[in-house]
Amino acid sequence: MNIGNLMLDMAPLGGGLAIFGGIAFFLVLAVVAFVAFLLLRKTLKMAFRIVIVGVILVIAIIGCVSFWWLGGRRPVRPEPPRPAPTRPK
Length: 89
Known about the structure:
By secondary structure, the protein is mainly alpha-helical. Helix content is 66%, strand content 0%. The protein has helices at residues 3-9, 14-39, 46-71. The longest helix is centred in the N-terminal third of the chain and has 26 residues, at 14-39.
């Protein structure tokens, strides 16, 4: 028996792991947006800085929602085949 096949048969912890991944992804990109806003203080006008930060935050929100949506589903498993009936001899 192949141990790798047994590992693939286990159901992942979808809901909680997806929520944690989404929140972590959003927080990391929110920090990146804040740092970008501070670094671009003297080089760009306020409108361009807000647009750049907005794009980063939109990517963070889309990533967060995709983690939640894709990770929150229950995996669909096919039913195992039934054994063939045997005839008595």
